[in-house]
Amino acid sequence: MKLHLDNNGSTNIVTGYGADHVMINKVRHDGNLLLTATGIVSGWAPGGYAGLTADDFAAARDLGMEIVLIGTGSRQRFPSPALLRPLIEARIGFEVMDLAAACRTYNILVGEGRAVAAALLFDALA
User: If DSSP codes are grouped into helix, strand and coil, which group holds residue 61?
Assistant: First the structure.
């Protein structure tokens, strides 16, 4: 069965991903970022997973979404609850998953018209 995403052209969707990048509407983006249906914040969480701060999640909170999908690279890793406090206090739902699952889940939720952000982290390259 072939599936085709119906995109009106103004919605950001993930069209591909790899260990060091994500394709959004067929345009490559390198580095950690925040993604919403209408915007891309490059340079998010410059310290990578190991350098995450509460301020990184405050930036995600400030997007005004109802849910934030946190993609933690090639494997699922759970940030400390202290780091997630900005989301918790704002009563914003969040899910932690690996990068690939976050990209797929983001596409499903944005396709449903949900107010969702993807906070995408890439593994540090050696």
Answer: helix
Whole-angstrom distance, CA of residue 37 vs CA of residue 50:
27
Nearest to 72 by CA among 86, 56, 88, 58: 56
Q: In which element (H, E) is residue 68 found? A: strand 67-72
> Model pTM?
0.91
Closest CA to 39 of 18, 22, 63: 63
The separation between CA 43 and the C-alpha centre of its own chain, rounded to angstroms, equals: 12
Taking only the tens of pLDDT, the chain with its 126 residues reads 344 455 556 899 999 999 899 999 999 999 999 999 999 999 999 999 999 999 999 999 999 999 999 999 999 999 999 999 999 999 999 999 999 999 999 999 999 999 999 999 999 755
Q: How far, in Å, CA of 42 to CA of 19, rounded?
A: 17
